[in-house]
Amino acid sequence: MISMRDMTSVAPTVCRALGVRLPSSAESSPISEVAESIHKTERLAVVVIDAFGVGTWEKVKAKTPTFNELRDLHGTVIRSVMSSITPVNFATMLTGASPEVHGIRNREQPLRNETIFHVMREAEMVSATAARAKSSLGILISPHADRPGLAASNLDSEVTEIACRMIDEDVNLLWVQLLDVDDAGHAYGPYSNESEEAAGRADANLRLMLDAARVKGYSVMVLADHGQHPSSDGPYMGVHGTDMPEDLNVPFLWASNDELRDALG
Length: 265
Known about the structure:
The chain contains 13 helices and 10 strands. By secondary structure, it is of the alpha/beta class. It has a single domain, classed as 3-Layer(aba) Sandwich (Alkaline Phosphatase, subunit A), CATH 3.40.720.10.
């Protein structure tokens, strides 16, 4: 693993890969090692596996062969911004702005800062999402996309179907959120058998998307919005939102389309 950056680096890295300018409130520079691998791709898929922190991944590696294979190509660790919860970090991912600048604390708030999607529209490029209708990506972010893909079932299986359809339609940027790992962690704990099985389902869904992406000429980035740690009390077995390493440290993986075709073809 390489030196850490935080979530404010995601938007600049995506914009550099697509060859467009940064959102106006972006605060960081692109992750240089990603920019060296992905050079002005025409199509990019960004897949966020909710709550799949480094600590969780280390416990469930036996269930994540696709994720592991992608990590063998390229990977680093970045840090969530505080508080380490989904809407805060999605707002930072899409704007490059810190929470103090974008002001988002929950998914019902309007996101007023310029996003990657706005920048792409200016460049006559098409953005899309694939998300559960009741998720942070679905509620907070998808209204800004050209083609918001919302799963009414609120199941990751439908999210994956929507993602593969969007890839087949050749959108320039697809942003995806998978939630099974977060759901299982909250209900049973992030290191439980149920979380291990959820990671396996997320990995299988990731494989379906990567197979579609490699055929259609997409480069990919895969990351988490935050991690999760076991709870000592309260209604949830797994929690996040703190500055504990388990909550903050998340994997960031990437591959150009050429690399994806060679690795998974």
